[in-house]
Specification:
This protein has 521 residues and is mainly alpha-helical. It has 18 helices and four strands. It has three domains: 135 residues, no CATH class; 147 residues; 205 residues, no CATH class.
Length: 521
Amino acid sequence: MSNIIEFRTVQDELDVHFEVMSSVDISVPITKEKVEKLEKLSYIDNCLTENQKIINDLNSEIDRLTNKADGIDYTIAVASGIISSLIDSFFVGDFSLDRGTQWGKEKVDAFVKSVAENKGYSGDSIDGAVRFLEEKFPIPADSATNIFGGGYNHHLRDFSHHPTPMGLLFSMLTQFTGKVFGTDKSGAFIVEDVPSKELIGKDLSRKLEIGFVNWIFHMVSDIAGSSSSIAKGKYGTGLPGPFVSLLKELSSLPFFSHKDSNNNKFCVWLSKLFNGTLLSEKDENGKIIPNSVIKFDLRAELGVLYELKRQAIPVIINECIVRVSYFVRRLLHEFTTKEIHNFNDFIYVIDWEKTLPSDNRTIARMVTIASSTFVAIDAADAAIRSALNSGGEPASFFTNMILKVNFVGIGRFAVAIGTDTYMGYKRSKLRNERLYRQSEQIFLSTAKVYYKQADMWVAAKDAREAITQMEVIAIKSIEYFQESIITIGLDLEKIISYREGIEKHNPNLLTDLSNILKYGK
């Protein structure tokens, strides 16, 4: 509330006091417009806070994706690649499918004998173990051998002879449909009736027993080849491995040409790979050397894994050297830059995340350099050795070189370069996003300043209105005071005009009125 000052009019010995109280509140109210501005400012502040959190996260991620390797890191990576390539050249040697297949055959034979003995076989020969399992766990698809090309081909063409989940699926389909599924000579998918229905289960439990249990143990017997071939000392035709089985199943799709075997080159190539003629050696007349035939069945696929495992040794050594050196260097840096006095400091003070040799661009770049060094030296060594052994024949040169190249090293290099490139791409993308977020921060900050300025102008406007209101009240008060003074003056003039009459009729009245006004009595 505002109080207008007390006015006093004094004339001669007569004092008159006037006091006027104003009921007008000139404080500025909170308007709807002001509330809206406050809400907008609060929203902008929240956006600024959230945006800053995102920018901080982006900075952290960009830092992880930034290569910080120095000259020592690069030197270690190159040295690691050289050391591992020398190990590969002098201790690992060539990729040998013969050696791998022989290893696969030994493992398969031991596995078949172990399973047969577990099921009651008491002999010690592999052909006896195979025969025991074949007779104990027969499957209906064996009666369709001639439909799928006889003993040399039916393991590949008959899909229920594939030791894969798809093979199990077709085995169960045979039980419930009475049909066999596979490909003909040209590679086209065919469905034929099972010649013998004796092994088609009469009820659900029997179907499951033959289609599932018998199928599993029959596959075990067939992976080592037929018992008759083994008894004659031959390698025997085993089952296709998962890789060849998948290729054979895919080759039966309509995408491939199945008019005849000559047009379906992929199916022909696949058959030659499985029966061994593709990888065999030939004499000067182009005829296959009998002892050089390598059938690419499950045993050969296991042999490939064995050879790749040998090739993986120098690649793993290369990886370990790089990652261990990264860890040791970063750990030493933590020791030198922080105060480590006891075991607790060692555990809690060190920033272990900075020492871990994984999931950052620096270690990815070091692995890329080490892998590229390994591949370059390995390829150069393979080319030199192949040139010396080939006698100048291009075909022999490329064949020898393929066998001497470390495939695991090439694969690791491809993964490393892909990882490094992807991290660079992701970093570039995140930097663009950070630039956008920073621009948004500037925009939000500008908007905040705008609303602050707008609020100041509104406050100035409200103050001006309050002052104007006070001015109007003051003017009205002055006018009221002026009117009151005039009225009082007129009243006093009337009193003066009545003075003579009063003094004549009541001479003591004026004295009494003066005393009342002065002293209240």
